[in-house]
Amino acid sequence: MMLTTMEGAVLKVPPSFRTIKPNPNHTNRTFRTVPSATASAPAPLTTDTKLGPGSLGHLTRPDFPILHQELNGKRLVYLDNAATSQKPTAVLNALRNYYESYNSNVHRGIHYLSAKATDEYELARQKVANFINASDSREIVFTRNATEAINLVAYSWGLANLKEGDEVILTVAEHHSAIVPWQFVAQKTGAVLKFVSLTEEEVPDIEKLRETLSRQTKLIVVHHVSNVLASVLPIDQVVSWAHDVGAKVLVDACQSVPHMEVDVKSLGADFLVASSHKMCGPTGIGFLYGKSELLSAMPPFLGGGEMISDVYLDHSTYAEPPSRFEAGTPAIGEAIGLGAAIDYLSGIGMQKIHDYEVELANYLYENLRSIPNIRVYGPTPSKSINRAALCSFNVDDIHPTDIATFLDQQHSVAIRSGHHCAQPLHRYLGVNASARASLHFYNTKEDVDDFIRALSDTTNFFASFK
Ligand SMILES: Cc1ncc(COP(=O)(O)O)c(C=O)c1O
């Protein structure tokens, strides 16, 4: 496999690279469910009305039973939404209803339960198609998660279409799920992976991406919203440049589909993937969107039941997409749960969710910057730059896992620490890990206030040992 980087960005570890060792100090905790968490919310740091009482976060919080509990006597503040989102009662009910009243296998039975399960499963596919404005539900393939969806494209489209010398362009900020499958394909085909670095503003440098494009480029694999930098890429622009040289574009929309309107027609994406569990749906289900003509020309990824037309002892013929790519019994209840999540999100409105999250994102960013010796990664928000509602950061001389552990055990604030499945990006940033607080529309300003207070307490605690 040939692996090249733009200006050696991926492989070169900056001199300031710090290997930070975590403090493996864990204690047992107690869990207690409480009727209402908002009752004990502390006084806000500011009085911004869009985030005040009656905000989207305050209105939707009651829909999420898990949020209303105490850990170690403190209300739970869940700020790990980029890893997975919480599930509203509507989704829990849809799952329960499926298993209690019409659990059955799809596409194979003529009895009532099977017909009902099939209808609901296919309705869920239609809901996904409508949600991202696909032309036809047959452009939606259900997968186990976004990772499997990317592997599907890599093993099916990639192995069939890439050859030695062809180029696949990615950015250094891609999630491992969007990098590793293409390393496999590059090893097998001799295709070259090219990685685009960041601008000074710590946003993937799409001008460099444009300069890297050539007739050798066959595919661009790019995220829509970064799960570390919180940057948002102009996918429509990238797609138009790619199409000018005859390349396809695979969009990793894991961090955009749950938070904003995503319209595959206006983006022009050839492939797009997302995971249900990040969009208030169940785990175990995700989807691949692919343009009809591309999916129709692609060979199967996995062999087995459901994906065939006819099976002979020496060969088989295959079903049309999407069945061609859904071998075996699918995650039926989970797909139906995803459909319920989409109904729930659509009921609120993705624009409304996005607008609220932009406010919350700015509030988080501004308040985080008040912590001494903090470094927040990604662009500074401005009139022209919206950040997604997450912040990855480091505080001088404190390991991010120590921060996350202290926040969890002393304050019941759940954030994430580590490389967030983006090791190349962390190397590029000169660290091996960061802490990350990530929000969703059911978070409130009080959640951010609690987090900032807890972080301030944490940094003061560690500073006291100096
Ligand atoms: C940007 C991005 N891409 C891909 C993935 C992989 O999603 P999954 O683990 O659900 O397959 C994630 C999950 O963290 C992500 O944030």
UniProtKB/TrEMBL annotation:
One of its GO terms (molecular function) is cysteine desulfurase activity. Its EC number is 2.8.1.7. Residues 22-31 have a biased composition (Polar residues). It catalyses: (sulfur carrier)-H + L-cysteine = (sulfur carrier)-SH + L-alanine. It is an enzyme of class 2 (transferase). Residues 77-451 form the Aminotransferase class V domain. InterPro entries: Aminotrans_V_dom (IPR000192), Cys_dSase_SufS (IPR010970), PyrdxlP-dep_Trfase (IPR015424), PyrdxlP-dep_Trfase_major (IPR015421), PyrdxlP-dep_Trfase_small (IPR015422). Residues 21-54 are annotated as: Disordered. Pfam families: Aminotran_5. It comes from the Eukaryota. Residues 33-47 have a biased composition (Low complexity). Keywords: Pyridoxal phosphate, Transferase. Coiled coil: none annotated. Gene3D superfamilies: Aspartate Aminotransferase, domain 1, Type I PLP-dependent aspartate aminotransferase-like (Major domain). Its cofactor is pyridoxal 5'-phosphate. NCBIfam families: sufS (TIGR01979). This is cysteine desulfurase. It comes from Penstemon smallii.
